């Protein structure tokens, strides 16, 4: 059993919550995190002493009004694992976080620590029986994206991904994380469990994005993604 499967099999249904205003995390993606607030330093320390799992969740609009308390968060989040960590001399952390699974937050629990936690359910992809439709969507995504990336490392990397045996669900998650879509659209993509619907939604949003101009000029700066600070 690989680390991902083992971690999810041992997940007990309660996640430490790391709400962020500017990041939607997806399964099968990696993000650098810089942790400096006391509550999230405590969260990180607790996670490192345990299963290393936390859930990244997007804050809802107007989060600034209640940021120091319990601002509203979306009900769908990404559970993942701290795969590398560095404790800095002043108590801050630099982390590498890998997304593992979508989770639905069922009930937020009373605080016993500085950070928030919630009961949650793991949510696997819903895969249709009609694989032909998935292959067609995969081809459409490749035909749309690859010509717009120009020549270079990113184009070659994505070509290899499209030609690999990576599932369409994982492919959509990687693309949704990497391309410069609005946060609300990324959150919508996170919330779509049926893979065919997710791929179609992503295709439509990418078509719209490309229609407005050179949408992928900044993509080179997204692979790998920069640090996200809490």
Automatic annotation (TrEMBL):
InterPro entries documented for this protein = Lon_prtase_N, Lon_prtase_N_sf, PUA-like_sf
User: Domain Lon N-terminal spans what residues?
Assistant: 15-210
**Recorded superkingdom:** Bacteria
Q: Which Pfam families match?
A: LON_substr_bdg
Q: Coiled-coil segments, which residues? A: none
Q: Entry's PROSITE patterns? A: LON_N
Q: Which PANTHER family match?
A: ATP-DEPENDENT PROTEASE LA (LON) DOMAIN PROTEIN
This protein is called what? LON peptidase substrate-binding domain-containing protein
